[in-house]
């Protein structure tokens, strides 16, 4: 964290100022997300690859009976089974979601503590004890559903859950805390949701177009076969499988519902920013921070995705 010269010593608070536990869980979440996404991508690609040998018009035989192209299908389907088995053992998706929830929970409470957000507002006694208790309660709930608490294995805890930067920001005047929170938390989150909305919109367009482009030749081939213009078009199955894989990928990435959800969150944050920068007083500050953190929580986004779909 750095201090900006000025009468009130404005400060910059970044993710680097958060405790080591946050950085560990965030890194695990990113790694497990990558693993889960790559596993699903491999399964879908192998399923499509398995349909290709039956669709191509040529054959390659060895020894009069062994079909080399069919070996490709055998290996592809075997690869699907192996990938599925490994995914069920590794549970990457579950660990990804649990560690993401833990990381965002830690980050949110650290921000609340540092800027006097509820329940760590200015009038509370022993805020450090309340912070530690609330954090432990939340992490305990995550442990109950399978989160692997890494603290006993961490060689360096980074000086505990309350960093020096968090204490320094908490000791600042209200105007400094407000400026720091609006700039380094609220506006940064607005930008993040806007970027993710744009990414999801592009993804939805790309994959919807790809599904249409793959379905169209399958439709043409099916119509030709229906009118007896051709004996058989095994290639139709490959196009259909490819379109189905793209559809499954698009649903897994949730492009369409995330566009709407991220747009709503960004709009709510814009309203919160306007209030914080104009009419909000210190009396209502703690509640406003609490509401902002609720808006940016992953649980709130998931709720919007489910109800806007």
Q: What's the rounded overall pLDDT mean?
A: 90
What is the helix fraction of residues, given as a range? over 70%
**Shape type:** elongated
Spans of 5+ residues with little confidence (pLDDT < 50)? 2-8
Structural class: mainly alpha
Question: Rg, please?
Answer: 26 Å
Largest sheet: 2 strands, antiparallel
Q: Tally of extended strands?
A: 4
Q: Give, in order, the helices and strands.
A: EEHEEHHHHHHHHH
Total of DSSP H or I helical runs spanning 4+ residues: 10
Count of domains: 2
- Strand order in space, largest sheet: 1-2
How widely separated are the two ends? 40 Å
Strand content: under 5%
What order do the helices and strands come in, and which of them pair?
Layout: E1 2-4, E2 10-12, H1 20-55, E3 61-62, E4 66-67, H2 68-90, H3 92-115, H4 127-144, H5 164-170, H6 174-226, H7 235-253, H8 255-277, H9 285-295, H10 298-308
């Amino acid at each position: 964290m750095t201090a900006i010269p000025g009468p009130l010593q404005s400060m910059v608070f970044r993710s680097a100022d958060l405790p080591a536990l946050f950085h560990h869980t965030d890194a695990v979440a990113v790694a497990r997300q990558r693993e889960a996404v790559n596993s699903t991508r491999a399964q879908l690609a192998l399923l499509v690859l398995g349909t290709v040998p039956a669709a191509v018009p040529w054959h390659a035989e060895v020894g009069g009976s062994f079909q080399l192209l069919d070996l490709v299908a055998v290996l592809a389907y075997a690869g699907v089974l192996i990938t599925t088995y490994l995914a069920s053992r590794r549970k990457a998706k579950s660990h990804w979601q649990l560690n993401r929830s833990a990381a965002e929970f830690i980050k949110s409470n650290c921000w609340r503590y540092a800027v006097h957000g509820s329940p760590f507002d200015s009038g509370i006694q022993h805020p450090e004890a309340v912070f530690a208790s609330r954090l432990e309660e939340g992490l305990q709930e995550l442990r109950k559903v399978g989160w692997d608490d890494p603290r006993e294995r961490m060689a360096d805890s980074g000086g505990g859950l309350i960093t020096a930067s968090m204490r320094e920001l908490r000791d600042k005047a209200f105007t400094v805390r407000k400026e720091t929170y609006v700039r380094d938390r609220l506006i940064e989150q607005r930008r993040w949701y806007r970027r993710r909305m744009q990414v999801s919109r592009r993804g939805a367009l790309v994959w919807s177009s790809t599904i249409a482009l793959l379905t169209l030749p399958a439709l043409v081939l099916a119509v030709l076969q229906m009118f007896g213009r051709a004996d058989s078009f095994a290639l139709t199955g490959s196009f259909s499988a490819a379109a189905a894989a793209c559809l499954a990928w698009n649903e897994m990435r949730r492009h369409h519902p995330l566009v709407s959800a991220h747009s709503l969150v960004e709009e709510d944050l814009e309203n919160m920013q306007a209030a914080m920068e104009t009419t909000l007083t210190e009396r209502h500050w703690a509640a406003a921070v609490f509401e902002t953190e609720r808006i940016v929580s992953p649980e709130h986004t998931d709720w919007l995705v489910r109800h806007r779909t």
